[in-house]
Amino acid sequence: MRSLGIDPGKDGAFALTVNGQLEKTWRMPSSAGELAMCEIIKIIGEASPTVITLEKVSGHPGMALKATWGFAQNYGEVRGLIRLWCERHQIRFLQPTPQNWQKILHKFATSTSKDPKIKTQQAVSALFPAEVALLKNKKDGFHSGLCDAVGIALYGERYGK
Predict the structure, then answer these.
(1) Tell me, what's the pLDDT at 139?
(2) What is the mean pLDDT of each run of 10 residues along the chain (161 residues)?
(3) What angle, 0 to 180 degrees and rounded to 10, lies between the N-to-C axes of helices 144-159 and 98-105?
(4) How far apart are CA 120 and CA 106, in angstroms?
(5) What's the rounded Cα separation, in Å, for the pair 19 and 133?
(6) What is residue 102's predicted lDDT score, i.e. its pLDDT?
(7) Helix, strand, coil % in the chain, rounded to nearest 5
(8) Which of 15, 56, 4, 1 is nearest to 144 (CA)?
(9) 99-132 burial: b if 16+ Cβ within 10 Å, else e
(10) Distance from CA of residue 4 to its chain's centroid?
(11) pTM of the entire predicted model
């Protein structure tokens, strides 16, 4: 199974797992502050997934109105593009909430931390120790969007059959 997991935020990412192995990751493409839709299409085409899993996100209390609007707009654009791709290519489309995919992935975390980002990073590192370099920023450690995308892709493998 070829599962493409997508963290849809501006700092989000894509991850492709193939039969439980991490194959490739991509950062969310953007140009001039906007999502680069043609690049997203290229990523999906290159990945050639059999299931696409997009994290179902929502705003949260305390988000500024402008930030909420930009977040919602990016999510809607990515979701529309993915739905169109899935319908056109007859690919299964899943939308788990963060809690859904994290519940499965965090079983592999070694920490007792309550921070979901830390637990996700630990779980992904434990599952794919040889690929940890694919998940890091140059300056400040793990890229949370890449780690999340891996967890989302693994959810797709498990439930996209």
Answers:
(1) 62
(2) 91 93 92 84 96 84 63 84 95 95 89 85 88 71 86 94 80
(3) 80
(4) 6
(5) 20
(6) 92
(7) 50, 20, 30
(8) 15
(9) eebbeebbebbeeeeeebebbbbbbbbebbeebe
(10) 8
(11) 0.89
Which ranges constitute the DSSP H helices of 54-131? 65-89, 98-105, 116-127
The CA-based angle 111-95-68, given to 5 degrees, is 85
CATH value at residue 92: 3.30.420.10
* Tokens found for residue 85: 């791709």
Domain tally, the chain: 1
How far is residue 20's CA from residue 9's CA, in Å, rounded to a whole number?
Answer: 24
Domain containing 96: what range? 2-159
